[in-house]
Amino acid sequence: MSDCIFCKIAAGEIPATVVYEDELVIAFDDVSPQMPVHTLIVPKEHYRDIGDGIPDALMGHLFNTVKKVAELKGVASSGYRVIVNTGDDACQTVHHVHVHVLGGAPMNSGSPAL
Ligand code: DGP
Description:
By secondary structure, the protein is α+β, with helices and mostly antiparallel strands. Helix content is 20%, strand content 22%. It has two helices and five strands; from the N terminus they run H-E-E-E-H-E-E. It has helices at 5-10, 56-72; strands spanning 18-21, 25-29, 37-43, 80-83, 99-103. Strands 1-2-3-5-4 form a five-stranded antiparallel beta sheet, covered by helices on one side. A hairpin with a 3-residue loop joins strand 1 (18-21) and strand 2. The radius of gyration is 13 Å and the shape is globular. The structure holds 2'-deoxyguanosine-5'-monophosphate. 2'-deoxyguanosine-5'-monophosphate binds at residues 5, 16, 28, 30-32, 40, 85, 91-94, 114.
């Protein structure tokens, strides 16, 4: 989508700190990190949210990328939180589905639930 910020990042049209990339997904650090580690994983193809008919294979790939990102960011063994905001009540602000991977410090009930 021409006006989608994450499509533009996936296309390399605007800069981001890329953590991982393959033919289907790209992972990059959140511009406004809520934890020491805060990385977003997005499919390169545009889907509005997790309920937008994402094919099973892509959905599986998207979530299997979480482990890769956790390893690359050094939080795989210490633990991390995975969040997918969906729609207005969940305060989804970028309408291109994305998986938040948060970690790098102990969390409690007051930690970001984004
Ligand atoms: P959500 O509320 O789940 O839609 O989160 C969207 C996240 O996207 C938010 O944590 C900030 C991040 N974000 C928004 N614009 C940009 C951008 O241009 N670059 C990067 N790296 N992150 C962005």
